[in-house]
UniProtKB/TrEMBL annotation:
Transmembrane segments: none
Protein species of origin: Fragilariopsis cylindrus CCMP1102
GO BP term, example: cellular response to oxidative stress
PROSITE patterns linked: GLUTAREDOXIN_2
MF terms in GO: glutathione disulfide oxidoreductase activity
One GO term describing the cellular component: cytoplasm
Protein name (record): Uncharacterized protein
InterPro entries for the chain: Glutaredoxin_subgr, Thioredoxin-like_sf
Source organism superkingdom: Eukaryota
Length: 169
């Protein structure tokens, strides 16, 4: 009669522990490679999935791009190349910026390559809650669109806002 060797309890435990450790190491390694945070819950590992960030055609993160534009200009206008509200806002701010010698930029998002305009529009909506254009920032503060710009100009506040920002930078 032939006897088969059966693994002892201690060797089975050791093998089970080794397999579990290998699986944990594999999950942790994959999480790091995928740049996804991991969370240990009651002895199990859960990988939290993050939405991938769509880069601009330049390779930049849309959030960083928008924030950099806002932070580096006295007046930053995200607009479209068409439409009366966009044209009026750009004309007014160009005239005032020239008179006050302020650092202003006007970016027509519809003229950007590929999906860049849509990515920037989505980022602006997340920051401001505003989907429409123009989307105007003065001194890192969101002013709004053409209607809000006209109101602050009519009240004589627009020039003061730009002067104050120009002196700070």
């Amino acid at each position: 009669m032939r006897r088969t060797a059966t693994p002892s309890f201690s060797s089975l435990s050791s093998a089970t522990i080794s397999i579990k450790c290998s699986l944990i190491l594999l999950v942790v390694t994959l999480s790091i490679l995928l740049i996804a945070p991991i969370q240990v819950v009651q002895g199990t590992i859960e990988v939290e999935e993050e939405e991938p960030i769509q880069a601009l055609s330049t390779g930049e993160n849309p959030s960083d791009f928008v924030r950099n534009k806002i932070d580096s200009h006295d007046v930053m206008v995200f607009a479209r190349s068409y439409g009366s509200h966009n044209r009026q806002a750009k004309e007014l701010l160009k005239r005032i910026s020239k008179d006050l010698n302020s650092h202003s930029e006007f970016l027509d998002v519809d003229l950007l390559p590929g999906w860049d305009g849509s990515l920037i529009m989505t980022e602006l909506q997340e920051i401001t809650g505003q989907w429409s254009f123009p989307n105007i920032f003065i001194g890192k503060q969101h002013v709004g669109g053409n209607k809000e710009l006209d109101q602050s100009h009519a009240l004589g506040e627009l020039e003061d806002m730009i002067i104050n920002v120009s002196q700070e930078l």
